[in-house]
Every structure is written in C-alpha cells, then in structure tokens.
Write a structure and sequence with these properties.
The complex is a heterodimer of chains A (524) and B (103). Chain A is an alpha/beta fold and 524 residues long. Chain A has 14 helices and 21 strands. A five-stranded mixed beta sheet of chain B has the order 2-1-7-5-6, with helices on one face. Chain B starts with a helix and ends in a 9-residue tail after the last strand. The chains are: A alpha/beta (524), B alpha/beta (103).
Chain lengths: 524, 103
C-alpha cells in the first residue's frame, strides 16, 4: 500500500524531499510562504492543505517521521506490517501522509525532519526560524525564512508528583504509548495505568493489546463529570463511539477501572514493585485509611496534556486559561494568534485531540492562503472544541492532590528539589508564585526547564500555572548562539554542504520555482 | 503470547547490536536507544547529580531529559530520541557525565 509509512519512501520522492529541504534550509534563500512548526495532526493537515491551495511550505518537525506524538509509528526498519493496529483514526493520517509525499515530490513542501525549532524571530516583513537538526556529533544548525508561521507544537504530558514517582519503571502514560508506538516495547509485564484523562483508556488498551497485564486503570476524576454536559456528548457521536471502543477493549482485557482513585505512592528500591492507590474526595484529596497496594513492575501515569507554547509566548502571543486549567493560546476564528503573521492550530489552542487538530490545521491553511474557510470545518471545530472543554473540565485536577505529597517527595526531577523545600520557600521565605519558588529552590531550573514540575510548583506556591517562558525551546550550544548575527544582519545557521545528499538528487529536481500563489495575508 | 510484535505483525530488517556497559544488546533497526534498553528489561541508565539515584526514560518524547545517557563517549544524549546505530557504545551516565572535567 503506497500510503503506508512503514514502507520506504519512493526514491524520486525522497530525493525531491531532501532537495527541497536543502533549498528551504538555506537562510539566504527566498522565504517560503508558510513555515509550519510540528508535523503532528494539526501541522500535517495545515501543510498539505496550504500546499494544495498553492502555497510553498516548509514543514519543520523534531521527529524522524511525520505524525507527531499521536500518529507516532515504527521506523521502516522495524518492518511493522500493521502499524494501524496501534492507532485510532489511522486512515486520516495515511491520507495526509500520502499527500505530504506527493507535495514534497512536486516541490511544494519541504519536509525538514529531525529539525527542532528553538526560536522564531522577526525578519524583515517575515520570520526567521532557527532549528537544531540531527543528533549527537551530526547535530547542526539550520534556519528557514518564511512569510507566515503556523505553530503546531502540540503538547506534552501534565505530571503531578507523588512519593516514588522518580523510580525506574514509573513512566509517563503518553511516554509508554510513545515508546510502544515507535519502538514496539513495553516498560514491564504488569503495568498499572494512572492519573486522569481519556488518554489513560487508550494507553491501557494499547498496552493490554500488546501483551502487558494491566491490573487497573486508576482515574482521579469521576466520569460522571461528563454527564453534566450531556448535550455536548450527544453532538459528538464519534467521540462517544471512541470512548465505547476503549471501554470495550478494557472489558475484553479484564482491566479494572477505578474512578476517583489515585496512585499516592510507588514502592521499590531500584525499580517499581508496587503502588498504593487511595480513594479521593471531590477535590482530589486522598481519604485516609483507603489505601491499598497493587503489585506491578511498571506504572504509566499522566494527568492530561499541556500545550507546548514557548515558541508562541516567546513571540508575545496572548494566552488564555482553558477548561482543564492549562494555559493555551488565544486564537481567533482564522486560528490567528495575537501576533500578526503567526498562526496556531491543534493542542496549542487548548487540548482537544487529533480530530480537532486536523480541522484547525485545515482552517488555518485556508486563512493563511486568504481563502474562505469551508463552513463544515468551522462547524466541526465548534463541536469538537465544546467536547474538549467538557472533557477538560471533567479532568481538571482538584486542588487537594498536593495532599499526597510528602516533604521528602522530589517535585523537580531534574534538580531533585523535594516538596518540603518548596513549601519552606512559600511558608518562610514569602514565595507566592512558581517563579519565586524556582529562584529560591532551583525547582524548574534543570534540563526540562520546568516542563515536568511546573504545575506542581505552581500549586505549592498557591497559584494557577503561568504561561511558559522559555527563550530557547531546547538546549542550544553556546557555539550556535554565537553564530547568530545582530538583528538586521544576514542570518546565521547556514546548512553545511553535507546537508543535501546531492549524490542522490539530480540537480534538475531541486525546486527553485517562485511561490505559485500570492503572498499570504499576514494581518489580522 | 501477545506482544507488540504480534500486534503489528511483520518482521524487522536485519538486526544488529549495540553495547551497553559492555553487554551486547540486540537492536531492531529504527529503535531508539531507550527502546533497545527497555526491550532488554533495562529501565535505568543514568544516576542523578545530587543523590546518585537511578533514572531512565520517563516522558518518552524528548521533553523531560530524564533519559540522558552517554553514547560513544558523548554524554547527555536523550535515549528516547537517539536512534540506536550498529556498534554504538552506550554507557550509564553518572551525574553530569563530565566527571573528566573535574568540575
């Protein structure tokens, strides 16, 4: 099947992709009409739709293969015959992935895989995107100029710490799913799945289908929260069917669903051997005397997702508080951020799942191309966004969860800062927000830059989590920073000669044609 | 018995190996270093700077940096992102991985 990404790309397409990639990577090249950051559902849908509307597109993505986290799939070398077995809604991806290949072969999209964009800066009347490409000794700088930018950077998992959460074998629920989808591996043979949100049901179903025993799914919220929004549910039959499918999979694999329960401790020395689960009150406070142990050799845990916003907030894009308590981008009907020329789609505008991300990516592409947005897309977005808000409200963490933190529980995994130290900074040193707590304790100053501990530190400091502020979205060497020239100068980050595998790409295939469409409208 | 492979079917291209702390581990082409280690039942390949506690993959998507490991002498590589290449020499990373600098 030509749409299967487990099959190696056809040689002609591969050559054109790399040739296009080289063409758009040269920072002094003519700007593309649109740079899309992130090749998950939103970015992929936006890129192929925009290319179909005549724009010349660069699609930059940190991953090796398009699809993002949701459509993560095994590398071709793994030879998976049925990658769709690990997925819900695979056909939607396969169609767009095939369109990406066709557009890339025709020179309309340059797909820059393994390019992690670390900052976006103004550049004349457009934008300059800086990326690090590749890994280890082959890591290099790259830059792309674009007239418009779509930020589709997706999300990462919201983590709430508990005693023992740093033990090996305790992994993110989304992390376990990602490792299974891309590497065909499991963290253990008996995996408890815990936290909150519909992702847990999908993860438990996948782990069980792949052979893991799942003694329990431990959900902190009560699913009765959905019942209060019955109208929204009824307008989303596909979502109900999806939920029923997950429920059916759990029944088939004899997985117990415990609602209004949480894992309040993981036990073990060198790796997790058991967890304690306890009943929660309505505010997620653990009820004394309700704890019991469940033996396991791994725990997959997560409490919903958080939009990945640092590129957008670095540009000054306005944010809002979404129903799940997270900070999301404030977007208009055309998916525009508050910064002219910067659009966004998918989880960055509020967690809502892949179907919503696909719709938003297509809406953004139309808006960027200056075309009217099809009404069906607008209606689909409204319906799915309403469902996402109902879901977000149902799974929003209750403030009582900090009741399961002990003073010696590490909150910041990177800097190994225990909860007691953060509490001391709040109680004795006057910290009233996560930033002050960070300056006093180092919580959030490590490698992950507060992505894992941010919600916890904010909760201990008594505030709602604030918008991400990370000038660099991934570690960048001092050498790369030194290569940057002052504003107004010629940009740095030239692709080295080795970037374009010219041995494979006949020179005649390098697409040098000018943009096939008028420049996109950048104003609001 | 069910397994990830039985779920997706097919077969990997020719397998190769990497070394982890001197031990040869099988690799299915395309797996990350973290996937290779999980497949071998290894969940920790780093010790922390402060308490020397064992750590391995956590977020699985390159966001948490808990899975840092030394690959071919180069520390601080994210095992969940870096593909395992034939003959890679992977070693447990202790602390910063820069003990040689004595800082």
């Amino acid at each position: 099947m030509p749409t299967s990404p487990s099959e190696p790309a056809r040689p002609a397409a591969a050559a054109a992709v790399t040739a296009t990639a080289a063409a758009v990577t040269a920072a002094d090249a003519a700007p593309v009409d649109l740079a899309v950051v992130g090749a998950g559902p939103a970015g992929l849908a936006a890129a192929v739709t925009a290319a179909g509307l005549g724009l010349r597109v660069a699609l930059l993505d940190a991953g090796e293969r398009a699809g993002g986290q949701f459509y993560r799939h095994p590398a071709p070398g793994l030879g998976a015959a049925r990658p769709e077995a690990l997925h819900h809604g695979w056909a939607a991806f396969a169609a767009r992935e095939a369109a990406l290949r066709a557009h890339a072969a025709a020179g309309r999209i340059g797909h820059l895989a393994e390019h992690h964009v670390w900052t976006v800066v103004p550049d004349g009347d457009g934008w300059l995107l800086h990326a690090v490409a590749g890994h280890g000794p082959e890591e290099r700088a790259a830059a792309v100029r674009a007239r418009a930018v779509l930020i589709a950077t997706g999300a990462y998992e919201r983590q709430l710490p508990f005693p023992g959460w740093t033990l090996p074998g305790v992994v993110g629920a989304g992390g376990a799913q990602a490792m299974l989808k891309s590497g065909l591996v499991l963290p253990g043979r008996r995996v408890v799945v815990a936290g909150s949100g519909p992702l847990l049901l999908a993860v438990a179903g996948s782990l069980a289908a792949a052979g893991a025993g799942v003694p329990a799914v431990v959900e902190a919220a009560a699913y009765t929260g959905y019942a209060r929004r019955a109208g929204v549910l009824l307008r989303n039959p596909r979502k109900l069917a999806e939920g029923a499918a997950y429920g059916g999979a759990l029944l088939r694999h004899r997985v117990r669903l415990l609602t209004r329960y949480a894992v309040t401790e993981a036990h073990g020395t060198d790796r997790v051997e058991a967890v304690t689960v306890a009943r929660l009150d309505r505010d997620w406070r653990p009820l004394p005397g309700t704890g019991r142990r469940i033996a396991c050799d791994a725990l997959a845990v997560g409490h919903g997702l958080l939009p990945q916003l640092e590129l957008a907030t670095g540009l000054g894009c306005a944010t809002r508080r979404s129903a799940d308590g997270a900070v999301a981008l404030d977007l208009d009907a055309g998916q525009r951020t508050s910064v002219p020329g910067i659009w966004s789609a998918g989880e960055t505008g509020g967690i809502g799942g892949a179907d919503l991300a696909l719709a938003e990516g297509e809406i953004a592409a139309h808006a960027i191309a200056g075309r009217p947005v099809p009404g069906a897309l607008v209606r689909r977005r409204a319906r799915l966004r309403a469902f996402a808000d109902a879901m977000g409200a149902a799974h929003r963490p209750g403030g009582g969860w900090t009741g399961w933190l002990r003073d010696d529980t590490p909150v910041c995994r990177c800097e190994e800062v225990p909860a007691g130290l953060v509490r001391e900074a709040v109680r004795d040193l006057g910290a009233r927000d996560a930033r002050t707590a960070k300056l006093l304790t180092r919580a959030g100053m490590g490698w992950c830059q507060g992505r894992m501990c941010g919600p916890a530190v904010a909760a201990l400091a008594g505030e709602e989590p604030a918008a991400d502020r990370r000038p660099l979205s991934c570690p960048v060497t001092l050498g790369r920073l030194a290569e940057l020239r002052p504003a107004g100068g010629a940009p740095a980050g030239q692709a080295p000669a080795g970037e374009a595998p010219t041995g494979q790409a006949p020179a005649g295939q390098a697409p040098t044609r000018p943009p096939a469409a008028p420049p996109p409208r950048a104003g609001r | 018995m069910r397994s990830p492979r039985s779920l997706v079917g097919g077969a990997p291209a020719a397998e190769h190996t990497v070394r982890f702390d001197g031990r040869e581990l099988p690799v299915q082409p395309g797996q990350s270093i973290a996937a290779v280690l999980w497949a071998a039942g290894i969940l920790a390949w780093r010790t922390t700077r402060g308490t020397g506690a064992p750590r391995g993959a956590f977020c699985g998507i390159g966001a948490c940096y808990d899975c840092l490991v030394t690959v071919n002498g180069r520390p601080n590589q994210r095992a969940c992102l870096v593909p395992a290449r034939p003959g890679d020499d992977v070693t447990t990373q202790e602390g910063t991985g820069h003990a040689d600098l004595a800082v």
